Predict the structure of HhH-GPD domain-containing protein.
Amino acid sequence: MSIKTLRFEGIKKRATKFKKLSEEFSLNQEFSIDQEVEKFLNKDHLAPIIGTICDQQITTEHAWTFPYWLHNKLNGKFSAQSIYKLGTKKIEKLLSLFMEDKWPSGMADKDRKNYLKNISRYIIKTCELIINVYDNDADNMFKNGKFTAPEIYFILRSLPGIGPKKASMIARDFVKAEGPWYKGIQDRLEKKGIKFKVERKNLTEVPVDVHVVKIFGRVMGEFRKTPSRDKFLDYWPDIQNFAKLAFPSFPGKIDEILWLVGRQYCYESEPDCKNCPLKDIPCEYAKRKGL
Ligand code: SF4
């Protein structure tokens, strides 16, 4: 089976089931972090940006804990100016120290080195931008109060280290009014008399990454092997349109179930189809494997 053989009726049926599943699961994409870390992320304007920049290749929990760890390491001198003054090399050393016992086991040495080099460079460049463009206060990015999802997306995309995936994930969190970054901004701006709101849920898109392509392709029977990254663009229109079919008023919502399945069931080798909530959508991959 594939999109061609499922035909419109088969695809529409799957979209309806996705919607139903998502209501049943009442999914929450918030990750578990220490209370002190969460408090710090809510209080500080810079911490969620650094957490977002770090959030690639390593676990989300570790990425979002780094700002709090750095704050303690710097004896509370955690600001765009003080971090910028430390420079890339020093931040790289500190990040390396933090990551010492937290690297994903399968991450190669070369990738670890690149991670440290790139992330520390992005952190310093972002601090420079916040100092020079936003008057040393990252919340000034959002001081107009009301935004649409695409506006948020491009405000975030202009930050070093925030690519399409991260920008659409955070824009989606803002639309849903959840996540540590959103909660903190809302509280801080409210104290300044600004009501922060992100409107037009229907303009959100699905953040496409390897999990999303893999799960979508397996459910639809589009491929036997997950394609390489340079082929992802081929699936982009199918995924975005399927999301609009399933969730017309909030297409980005589909990411909740894809996120859960990607994290807990749909491993590259030996996916746990038996327990996966998408098995009975039905998933063409699971059907083919007789699961
Ligand atoms: S049923 Fe299996 S292949 Fe299909 S989405 Fe779930 S884990 Fe992946």
